[in-house]
Design goal:
alpha+beta; 13 strands; 11 helices; six-stranded antiparallel β-sheet; four-stranded antiparallel β-sheet
């Protein structure tokens, strides 16, 4: 397996960043995770001498930008509808000409919509499970076309919010009712039975994969953020398989118009060994349970350096 190489740090003086707003919290369904992530990011930046301060949510950021005194933004808002992964806050920051971490308007909006992301991937020949848009009226017909088992989920949520894995026809209506509690279209896709993996992206480098082994049957919200018995194996694969999952993840990230940093979730079918792309996260979690810091540590990058490297990307040309 080829060794990972990272460019040297662009800056060593924290003063080069000016005043940095760490955008956290917000009003999405992932608020609590974002608050946790944001506290960790803020502490890491301040420990390295960066003049960083917390801003909770998009309205507060708008006020801070209008008042001046914000030189750049570290966006760690998760989700949409008041989160920071749907392109709205990116448009706000671009309008003020303030550099920010992560993907721009297009990459954020596209990757937040799982249906349109899958359409892009399929058009480029990238592997992703077959899917259907579903409603309460067509759910049974679509399940018959795809074949059970299937996964039903909101097209615009993250952190396993609103997801159901359905193995028989009787569970379909309940799954649609759960997913319909959230805004936007509903997505049904063929369920891939096998290993759940994720690949973090930092700049132009795909970090070592992580294979996720929950104590229970599924890697759900509880296993992601609460349980202490989930195993994370990093690297998750070896040899040619590890090279291939990194290649596919980086291609998927770029195809979705994403940049800077993020995370690509992948399934590997237990029978065929094939990889299937699930989604891109453009502002991944940075909590004690989060996966990007684990992958970075495996590559020799500690949490504080990881946060610094993400912030450094705002020293490049503006997203605008």
């Amino acid at each position: 397996m080829s060794a990972l190489t990272f460019p040297p740090l662009r800056a060593t003086d924290p003063a080069v960043f000016g005043r940095v707003a760490v955008l956290l919290g917000g009003s999405s369904s992932e608020r609590e995770v974002s608050l946790d992530s944001g506290r960790n990011v803020l502490q890491a930046l301040q420990s390295r001498g960066v003049d960083a301060f917390a801003v909770d949510g998009i309205p507060a950021l708008a006020r801070a930008l209008a008042a001046g005194g914000v030189d750049r933004v570290f966006n760690i808002l998760h989700g949409h509808n008041g989160g920071g992964e749907d392109g709205i806050v990116q448009g706000l920051m671009a309008a003020f000409g303030v550099p920010y971490t992560g993907s721009d308007v297009l990459g954020s909006a596209l990757s937040m919509d799982k249906i349109r992301t899958k359409q892009v991937w399929l058009s480029l020949g990238l592997p992703t499970p077959q899917y259907r848009k579903v409603t309460a009226q067509n759910v049974h017909a679509n399940a018959a076309e795809l074949g059970l088992p299937v996964v039903v989920k909101p097209a615009n949520e993250g952190s396993s919010v609103g997801i159901s894995r359905v193995t028989d026809d009787a569970g379909l209506d309940e799954a649609v009712a759960l997913a319909a509690r959230y805004d936007g279209q509903l997505l049904m896709e063929q369920m891939v039975v096998g290993d759940e993996l994720t690949v973090a992206i930092l700049g132009d480098v795909a970090l070592p994969s992580i294979r996720i082994v929950p104590k229970g049957q599924w890697y759900d919200y509880n296993a992601k953020y609460i349980a202490e018995d989930t195993q994370y194996l990093c690297p998750g694969l070896d040899g040619a398989d590890e090279e291939e999952i990194r290649r596919i993840a980086l291609a998927a990230f770029r195809a979705a118009g994403c940049r800077g940093w993020g995370r690509v979730d992948v399934m590997r079918d237990r029978t065929s060994g094939r990889f299937f792309l699930l989604e891109v996260n453009t502002a991944p979690g940075m909590t004690s349970h989060s996966l990007v810091p684990k992958a970075a540590a495996q590559a020799g990058i500690g949490f504080e350096e990881l946060v610094w490297r993400v912030l450094e990307q705002t020293l490049e040309a503006s997203h605008a």
